[in-house]
Predict the structure of GDSL esterase/lipase.
Amino acid sequence: MGRTFIFMHFFVVCLFFFCIVECEAKQSLAPALYVFGDSFVASGNDNILNTDAKANYAPYGIDFPNGTTGRLTNGLTLADFYAQWLGLQVPPPYLLFNQTEKHTEGFNYASGPAGIRPETSTVDHGVFLSMDKQVELFKKTAQEYLPTLFGNPDELKDYLSKSIFLVVIGRNDYTQNFLSPKYNSSSKWNMKQFAEIIVDELGSKILDLYTVGARKFLVFEIDAMGCEPAFYEKQKNECSDKLTSYISTYNHKLEVELQILAKTVRGAIFALAKRYQLMYDLVANPARYVH
Ligand SMILES: *[C@@H]1O[C@H](CO)[C@@H](O)[C@H](O)[C@H]1NC(C)=O
Ligand SMILES: *[C@@H]1O[C@H](CO)[C@@H](O)[C@H](O)[C@H]1NC(C)=O
Ligand SMILES: *[C@@H]1O[C@H](CO)[C@@H](O)[C@H](O)[C@H]1NC(C)=O
């Protein structure tokens, strides 16, 4: 009787531990999602910044469970969907998060007008978080906030190496910099040089994240901007040739850069999210997507 009890007890304890390991694995595919980027993934940091590029009013968020949040969309962003798919909480916007609370599932540093280059968008949109500011904030998170939540540096290192770093940026470097006469970049560089420069800069920001402990990167191409209503060539009934060539050049260089990074740094994974062709095809062959 006594032995059975001990055995049962042991069995229950085993189940409990089994569940800690197994249930955690089932609940989420990664311990955290850290988000960097522009209006595709911004979720509220801009609400408290001195920028006119806010989205914290109706009808933004009309389909979002919690209403208007600062997302530049009716509902969830692609980063939110991805977090849910991973089994994680939607990452809170870093600047709105109360730092006295404990949170290890990741943050969102994105900002609507953000570009890779620090001057991108500044002429029109004031103060926001460019890519270098976002990376600085993550360093602060990794070096000051997270260490208070982990028992020792190895645990933190392991956690960071399993976390996913999602980056969606680059289009504003065209619309709010290279293509705008308010900036000097198009008089200094041609289209190929500019793509080279911003891809290099993005690569160095990714390396900064790596240096702090990030290992799993999911980097998005720029989408098929030339097919958006603002740039679509209505007379010819086709996507803008000029933008298509700019963005294709950037995306190709980005792919090469990620391949180089994968060869240069140890123990990291770089995935390129090929969204360009997906969007291009959506515009070119809409019938394929109607069910
Ligand atoms: C909605 O708000 C509730 C309560 O503040 C919060 O717990 C929840 O995470 C929010 N949902 C999303 C998707 O942000
Ligand atoms: C932050 O959270 C702490 C602890 O939950 C709370 O005491 C404090 O009032 C919060 N601060 C703000 C600004 O909400
Ligand atoms: C463009 O160049 C001028 C002259 O060097 C400088 O004053 C201005 O700040 C630059 N504009 C931007 C957006 O960098």
